[in-house]
Amino acid sequence: MNEQAPDGFGVPSDEDTEVSRSAAARYGRRALMLGAAAAGAGITASLVAGVNPAEASSNAVLLGETNSATATTVVATNHGSGLEGTTSQSNRSGLEGVDTSASGGYGVQGTSENGTGVRGQTVAANRSGVEGVDKSTGGGYGTYGSSTNGTGVYGLTSATGQTGVQGVDKSTGGGYGVQGTSNHGTGAYGQTSADGKSGVEGVDTSTTGGYGVQGTSNHGTGAYGLTSAENRCGVEGVDTSKGGGYGTYGSSTNGTGTYGLTSANGKNGVEGVDTSKGGGYGTYGSSTNGTGTYGLTSATGKSGVKGVDTSKGGGYGVEGTSDNGTGVYGQSSVNGQSGVQGADTSTGGGYGAYGHSANGYGTYGHSTYGTGAYGQTSAAGKSGVQGVNTSAGGGYGVQGSSDNGTGVYGTTTTNDQSGVQGADTSKGGGYGVQGTSDNGTGAYGQTSATGKSGVQGVDTSLGGGYGVQGTSDNGTGVYGQTSVAGKSGVEGVDTSPEGGMGVYGSSQNGGIGVQGTSDTGVGVSATSTSGPALQVQGIANFSRSGSALVAGTVASPEVGVTVSGVPLTASSIILATPQVYVPEVGIAAVVPDVQSGSFTIYLTAAVSASVVVAWFVIG
User: Fold this and answer.
1) pTM of this prediction exceeds 0.70
2) Lowest mean pLDDT among 153-162, 540-549, 578-587
3) Total domains, the chain
């Protein structure tokens, strides 16, 4: 539709106005012969503009006839109407003007110096005071109004529920009931001073649903709303449907459905408020193949999406749920930053990040090159990362797993603190730290500090317990190994003032309390600088000790016996003593044979009866 009137269709020219005024002054009140109107128009006047009144014919105007003139006919009066026409025939006009000019003029024109140019009035319901009908094939204007300094078309009503200006579109393809266009301003402008009313209001009464108000733009904003009142909206949409719809709905084929912008500190580009009693969503976003809600910020220390919980009972600033995936997922490509970060600023201490799961992972973190989950706290006695398991069957508060590395790794830079620390507070007693392995070591400790321990256990109980305890169903309870000469696989040190045991071993079922073995060295070494190096209470058994029988008889007296199968060295010392008393008979000598691993015990005299000799090898 054209945005301005075609040539010759607009405000009357100064020439036309001047002709009308001069004619009225010259002729005054011309006598007209008015009577009953013939069938058709009440009065039909054919006007030819632009002809000098001096050349006009002075013939009288005949009713019911076609009157021709070569100049403007002027009717002037000081009282009443200058010209009035009436008709009683349906669909006819009391006064009709027809323009047959080639360039187009005005069928009826009214001018006023201080009032209204053309005024129409009707008392019939559903009729118009002024009606214009466009029957052109190319399409024109049923009613057209223009103004140089004012309003082109102005409509006024004092009836409730009616319209000052109303446009109705009855086309089959659909058009516009009211359309406004502007080259430099606003196409359609509405204003109201009534509270709770709208400057522009659109109502959709279609059966399948349309748009109450629709705005489109090729290069700008489709619909624009502006307000200067606090806590009011530039654009407000209200949904009153029973099934629930959208107060404001935005969609886009290739861009953003709804876009909000603010330049005020502490305010929101888009804000949604839920006032339902059952609880709903302040802002809700959904997507079939993309992200439901997307937030972006370029300000340092700010959030792309931020949620704040101000409830008294405590809720969630941001909550994410998923039927088959991850509830909340965060990703970062910046070194030293976190995919998901939580900070606790409460005075009593809370959780920077808290995760809960009925059957899966309360909190799960993943990183390609960095740390999957990172927690930090500056409160004494609190945890950077804390996991709590409340399951009835028992689970893990924190669990770490690794395909090729360490499942859980902890470091500390503070003296006398632990890289990883476990505390058992159960009443029946459990494990502060427990490690299990299917094919390897259950708990492994390593240190590179001299004089320190790879694994250290400290018992602070009043009744006394075990600093380190090892148990095994089928193997060794505690096993120690060293590859350094002069060091011990297992070493125990007693620092008690009254003296205790550096290493203590006991056996309850006839086994060995402490056993030491060595392939080429000392199995067990005992050293003391001021006390006994070795103290034995009870029976002592030695593998290189025993007894030998000197089997002498009266018929064949014997002076000695040879013992075989005893490991000997050149420095071995063999002690022997008879176990019975034989007068004037003792041990004369013990002669070892190192190569054969044997030795011979000689008596001072041959005996004619059996004599048992005990022997003991040292070294």
Assistant:
1) no
2) 153-162
3) 2
